[in-house]
Amino acid sequence: MSGTSYSQVEFGEELPALEPDVSLANVRRFTHAAGMTFPRFHDHEAARKEGLPGAIVPGIMSQGILAALIHRWAPSARILRIDTVFRSPILVDSRPRATGVVTDKNDGEHTVEIDLTIQNEAHESPVVGTATVAL
Amino acid sequence: MEIDVDKLKREWAGSTFDTAEFEISADDLRDFALACGETAPHYTDPSHPDFRAVPNFTARYVGRRILPDNFPRLSDGFGFDAGKCVTVLGPIRPGDKVTAKSRIHDIYTKTGRSGTMLFIVHRMEFSNQRGESVSIVDWRMVQRARS
Amino acid sequence: MILDLHNHSIVSDDGRAKVENYCQWIRKREIPLDGFVLSEHRQFDAVSDYRKLEDEYGLAILKASEVETDYGHVLVFGVNEAMQDAFDFRRIDLPLALVLREVDRCGGVAVPCHPGRPRVGMCAHFEARGPVDGVTVIETRNGGSRASEDERALHLAEERGYRGVGGSDAHIVSHIGRCVTRFPAPIRGMGDLVEALRAGEFEAVSWKSTSTS
Fold first, then answer.
1. Given 1.10.540.10, 3.40.50.2300, 1.10.486.10, 3.10.129.10, which CATH number is that of A6-22+58-134?
2. Rg, chain B, Cα only
């Protein structure tokens, strides 16, 4: 892990990748905490009845995973804004990979922009986004 | 189906159509953070002096109404979630009572993998019991026009 | 000369990349690009002036549009006032035949993009409703498309004798340079690009497997 003060961060720096836990048990923990009752998030069979290949990870859990990616890289970072696009579902019990890279530095504000991606096992990017982070 | 987006915007965008209140629970804050893979104690340990919500915690909330009464339904259901943008304005702590005001922020159309889509940007503005603004969540809801 | 023909900036409603950051990324990652095209959704950005960035970073930064038709999305190169008078770039239901005809008449080139994707790509519409005359070039390599979607586009190109271009369809900075187009001759501006596209002198290249993003 690099130093995480503003002066130490470089344009193009990659955040350490994260392989998040999207097991059924953990997604159920999330949906309970988030008050999300739709069965498509915590029941494979119910999701298939809706035409999905299986239970899917809630979009806001993906967003939370990307926030955790940033915090693990820079524990003192303050996320000012996080913006994610949900292009297609991430499947529960799959093995996605969250990555981030610094794509802008604002010397006046001491903030950085980070490109965020969650890739699935087919190397597609069902979730992409950006974050503005104060360091 | 022809969608008059300018008319929809004129008629529906801008005004608050829903207000809801939520009480923040330490257990929910902790479990939300842990499930997302957070490790920092100020997000995962309720006994930490700076324990607080993760930045996108408010994205979980919906009001009593997702859309204004009588908003035209262009598809079955409310549509699907195309993405969320969370702007963090202040900390949210356990025991806080947050008030969320909902309005339609923007409406536009485009075509995508799902066909012709109506994008409704639903904005929720959260303030705490002291009247301090703590979060803004923009939720891009997509309705696919019935063919 | 290698150009990335399909990218979006913050000018597009779903774009999150600032143009200067694209330039910085290309140089920092030593991506062997000579330039890129900004093909903003449903509009032509006549206002932004990237000449200073071009000089600073030694990159060609060209402007085009991505419009929406009844046969999917189409990249429009060589946008001018006559073209913008001919049809409304903001509409999501433009007839493909109209776009092809008017773009050609006004001196540009219309290139159906990500043709292999469902609904927003031309292949599925051709299969359902038959082909439309006037297509000469399609995007056979798209950075945001699945491998099967690019394969479908390549197959269509071979079947119908279309030439293929490549573009990243980047909406965030780190996605530029995934798919590109190689030109044998220098491209100094949009005029040269349009000429090269009309002459069929180019090839699509995918850098997806080697891309740093």
1. 3.10.129.10
2. 17
- pLDDT score of A32: 95
| Predicted local confidence at residue B146, as pLDDT | 58
* C118–chain B Cβ distance below 8 A for any pair: yes
ipTM of the complex: 0.95
Fold that domain C2-206 belongs to in CATH: TIM Barrel (3.20.20)
* pTM recorded for the entire structure: 0.93
Tell me which residue in C73, C92, C117 faces B109 most closely, judged by beta carbons: C92
d(C-alpha A8, C-alpha A16), whole Å: 15
Neighbours of chain B (3+ CB pairs under 8 A): A, C
pLDDT-derived band at C16 (thresholds 50, 70, 90) equals: very high
The verdict on domain B5-24+61-144 having CATH code 3.40.1110.10 is no
Which residue's entry shows tokens 């303030």? B127
Burial label for C46, CB within 10 Å (0-12, 13-18, 19+), is exposed
Q: Note the pLDDT of residue C213.
A: 43
Residue B110 near chain C (CB below 8 Å): yes
Among C175, C96, C103, smallest CA distance to C129 is for C96
Is the predicted pLDDT of residue C212 greater than 60, yes or no? no
Give C21's contacts in chain A (Cβ within 8 Å).
Answer: 103-104, 113
